[in-house]
Fold:
Amino acid sequence: MASVSGIVTTTSFCILFFISCLLSASSEPLERPPIVDGLSWNFYLTNCPRLERTVTSHLQKVFKQDSGQAPALLRIFFHDCFVQGCDGSILLDGSPNEKDQAANIGIRPEALQTIEDLRSLVHKQCGRVVSCADLVVLAARDAVSLLGGPKFAVPLGRKDGLTFSINGTRNLPPPSFRTGKLLDTFAARNFSATDVVALSGAHTFGRAHCSTFFNRINQTGTPIDPFLAKNLSKTCPTSQSSNTAVLDVRTPNVFDNKYYVNLANSQGLFTSDQDLFSDSRTKGIVNSFASDQKVFFDSFADAVVKLSQLDVLTGKQGQIRAKCSVANTKKEGLVVTSVVEEDMDLRGHI
Structure:
């Protein structure tokens, strides 16, 4: 028969071993999507260590005054990355420029100014080492998390492009797309159906102009809730009306999974939204996101990290703009090299 002391010793060892296993497991970095060469999860660790804290703090103040800038910043991010890569080209002035194109109708000047304000704050704090392209990504990430969405890390180290692309804006999928065209457009950039449905969840907050959804009011191709159609008719008597409508009829100012609940009730504002619930390739994904917010949040975070790496400029490519709306002159310098701590990899969710 074992002694009492032996039992105590064995029990203590088991408890310590169990705790040790838990600690070891918790110290393992959470798996994140792979990142392209030149980017890093902690790119500014040494030369601008307070970068993310500075961005978050400023955006908290901005959203307290104007929460509508959150979806605006997320839209700027998508419309920047999908044109010619995440290079800050949407920020560049010109006549014409990307911002003036039909696909970018409604881009808010206030949100563009917020990115420039962030650049000014960060460059004052750290010098000209942080690109406007990275600030667009960080602002979009915080726009999601600060309004109730997931908190996640994004790889950094992008450089700013020197040019913009008018023709590239035609690659942006319009809100009138049916699911087939939407999937094909994204598949060309190696995005899966799950990625597409997750990224569409960005429409869980924000507003849209009448011209972008007027076709939905009397549409027969995709179902629409009669009560929603009636309200939209009052809001938008014509497609040229300057009024706007919320993208999410349930929680328009919160980043959550109610967008997918809306689709299940024929309350998607855009054709491209509602058709996701009609198409057999995406309906199951919509249902899974509607029933489990965490599943949506995880899929959305992964899709954003993937999107944020489209055709990025890194290393000696591009430049770090002294002002986000203007490419640097030769005097200002095309490239400012940043220090990257490759041996330190802070992966995972924040």
Q: What stands out?
A: The radius of gyration is 23 Å. Residues 51-307 form a domain with the Peroxidase; domain 2 fold (CATH 1.10.420.10). Strands lie at 207-209, 244-246.
